[in-house]
UniProtKB/TrEMBL annotation:
Keywords: DNA-binding, Sigma factor, Transcription, Transcription regulation. Residues 118-170 form the RNA polymerase sigma factor 70 region 4 type domain. PANTHER family: ECF RNA POLYMERASE SIGMA FACTOR SIGD, RNA POLYMERASE ECF-TYPE SIGMA FACTO. InterPro entries: RNA_pol_sigma-70-like, RNA_pol_sigma-70_dom, RNA_pol_sigma70_r2, RNA_pol_sigma70_r4_t2, RNA_pol_sigma_r2, RNA_pol_sigma_r3/r4-like, WH-like_DNA-bd_sf. One of its GO terms (biological process) is DNA-templated transcription initiation. This is Sigma-70 family RNA polymerase sigma factor. Coiled coil: none annotated. Residues 30-93 form the RNA polymerase sigma-70 region domain. Belongs to the sigma-70 factor family. ECF subfamily. SUPFAM superfamilies: Sigma2 domain of RNA polymerase sigma factors, Sigma3 and sigma4 domains of RNA polymerase sigma factors.
Length: 179
């Protein structure tokens, strides 16, 4: 029976404190996660492994900017997402999924997804109950604005405005972790 690895945020915090062993474990776990992340978005693109390496280098270069009080998965996936966008722009391809959807915070099926879900829940907890419900139903469950409008009694425009403000507030929290 193998011993489970600590959560990625704990590994990152230890790495920031100079723990080289934790840093190596973190980079290996992130490499596995990144391979899955890019494979799902690029298919059999030969550049996927290059993207993994570029993203790991970016994480290495920016590791001092990670704020332990902020969600690690959001910080990590933001870097991966920007690397993917840069690659898609350079190759003039369009992604196989919507890039600016909130689901990117969930991102992968591997072990970090539990951490990402917790990060997403923390972001959602900062919203009003009505905004949280709208983000969940539209962005996570995939219901249409019209369906949510009918159910809530709010106009579709009001739903879109609340959704926009909620996503903007969540993005601001994640953005603060990158500064």
């Amino acid at each position: 029976m193998s011993v489970p690895n600590p959560p990625l945020d704990s590994l990152m915090i230890a790495a920031q404190s100079g723990d080289e062993a934790a840093y190596h474990v973190l980079l290996k776990a992130l490499a596995v996660t990144l391979r899955g992340y890019f494979a799902r978005r690029l298919g059999r693109d030969a550049n996927a492994e290059d993207l993994v390496q570029d993203t790991l280098i970016a994480i290495h270069e920016r590791r001092a900017t990670y704020d332990p009080q902020r969600p690690f998965a959001a910080w990590f996936f933001a870097i991966a997402r920007y690397k993917l966008i840069d690659h898609l722009r350079a190759t003039r391809r369009s992604p196989t999924c919507a890039m600016d959807e909130i689901e990117d915070f969930i991102g992968v099926d591997e072990e970090p997804s539990a951490s990402a879900r917790l990060d997403l829940e923390r972001l959602l907890d900062g919203l009003s109950p009505r905004s949280r419900d709208i983000v969940r139903t539209v962005k996570i469950e995939g219901q249409s604005v019209a369906e949510v409008s009918q159910r809530s009694g709010l106009s579709p425009i009001a739903i879109r405005v609340l959704l926009h403000r909620a996503v903007k507030a969540m993005s601001a929290k994640v953005g603060n972790s990158r500064s």
